[in-house]
Amino acid sequence: MKRILPPNLCASFFCWPLVCALGLAVGTTGCLIIPTPHSDSGYARTNLDRHMPEQFTPSVTTRQDIILALGEPDAVSWDERQMAYRSEKIVALWIVIAGYAGGDAGTISKNQFYVFEFDPQGRFQTVTKSGELGMGEGADEPLLNSTVLKSVHTNGAPAMFRGEPVRCEYPKSFWLVGVDGFRSQGAKYFVCEPGQLLLTESNLVFVTAFQFANTEPALTLPLASVAEARVDEWSRPLVWSRCRLVVRLNSGEVHSFEIYKPGSFRQDKPAVQAACDFIQSKIKTARTEP
Amino acid sequence: MNAKILLVLTLVLTLVGCATTSTPLKGRADLLNFLTDDKTTREEVIVTLGQPAGRFEAEKILTYRLGYEPKNNGYYLVEREPTASGWPTWTAAKFSLVLVFDDAGILRKHSLVKVNQ
User: Fold this and answer.
1) Which phi-psi region, left, alpha or beta, contains residue A62 (left: φ > 0; alpha: ψ -120 to 50)?
2) What ipTM was estimated for this complex?
3) A149 in a structural domain
4) CA gap A119, A58 in Å, rounded
5) Which of A142, A170, A198 is the endpoint of a domain?
6) A19 has pLDDT over 80
7) How far apart are the C-alpha atoms of B89 and B80, rounded to whole Å?
């Protein structure tokens, strides 16, 4: 059989997932996907290529050398043992040619992640490359912590916060400052801060998605200062019910949190209940202690 | 007479409509001139450039994001541009300034990395 394109071009240009997506999408939704030559989206860094890792030598190159060469990383784990760099290539265009959304169009991009791992002395050990397809417009990008950096676990050791191991971690959480569950006026529509919620023996910690994980968390609440922890639910017919973890401090300050299943838009109600139970157990312990 | 006034008014309004205001250049070509290895201190850097976008290895490494103005070959500071996913973008910032200090807080190495074309 005669090839129209050289094999390597064929592999990069018409990668199999895209070909399958093309057939499936046109057949079922009237959506047309047109593969394009890979080009930088302009949103992410462009100073990465597949030969880039070759300049670094395991056990010799340091974290410092890599930052000096590639610039500020896009993400770092809390203990700096992992650093991630991301590029984003446009690989296809999508056009809806029929139905309600007819005439809509956008791009499909491919995120390329390079995750560098270091030993405790900051010497480079390995680099792993991974990629994820995503819709360039209107859809969620892959979440930072849940998919790429094992930021709260490095080499199987539990993450520590101020010398304490993290007991519960919720990587896809949202924080609502000063919101009392669904009781505050307009509480259902408040804008939340995305990030991850962590619970240690004596602290509730929230690290926002907008900060480097090696910096001081955006919120640290000592559990000893918590007066009340409860789960608030809100439901209406034909709408998914929602729930929030509400934490009220002795000072009257209040915070709410929503927890979602990683990689999903569904709320994780058992996780909200578990977090609430954990905090309540710590409040009870504190109250019963002499 | 009225026709002349009308003509003048039309001409003035047309010219005003075409007028453009020149926006001041963002960048400064000398922004980084104060950086000298083995001399500049971390305090001088923070006083001059403000809070860094990234801090690593207990503040031995500081990073700043810089935009670039080709008209005057100038650099300007840009804040981290996060998205809801947590991944920052590099749309306004084109360069990453990396500064490495020693234990005494003296600048030992620095690099200006072109991150986005």
Assistant:
1) beta
2) 0.83
3) no
4) 10
5) A142
6) no
7) 8
Dist. CA B112–CA B29, nearest whole Å? 14
Domain of A62, in residue numbers = 7-142
Contact B84 A194 (CB under 8 A): yes
Measured on CA atoms in the order A11, A13, A18, A23, is the torsion positive or negative? negative
Contact B85, A141 (CB under 8 A): yes
User: Residue B25, CB half-sphere, CA atoms under 13 Å: how many?
Assistant: 11
Q: Which of A142, A167, A194 is the last residue of a domain?
A: A142
Measured CA to CA in angstroms, residue B94 lies from A67, A72, A184, B22, B74 at distances of 15, 11, 42, 23, 12
Q: Indicate if the alpha-carbon torsion angle A97, A102, A103, A105 is positive or negative.
A: negative
Q: Do A72 and B65 touch (CB under 8 A)?
A: yes
- Give the total residue count for chain B: 117
Token pair 């070909």: residue: A19
Find, among A151, A117, A107, A113, the residue nearest to A132 by Cα.
A113
Q: DSSP letter at A152?
A: T
CB A166 within 8 A of CB A243: no
CB contact under 8 A, A71 and B91: no
| Disruptive mutation site among A68, A72, A78 for chain B (greatest number of B CBs within 10 Å) | A72
pTM: 0.72
Distance of alpha carbon A256 from alpha carbon A232, whole angstroms: 9
Residue A205 lies in a domain: yes
Return the CA Rg of chain B. Answer: 22
Take residue A160 and report the two structure tokens written for it.
């520590």
Written as six digits, the tokens of A91 are: 């690989």
Structure tokens at A44: 């992410």
Q: What is the mean pLDDT of chain A?
A: 80
Percent of the residues in chain A that have a pLDDT greater than 70, as a whole number: 76
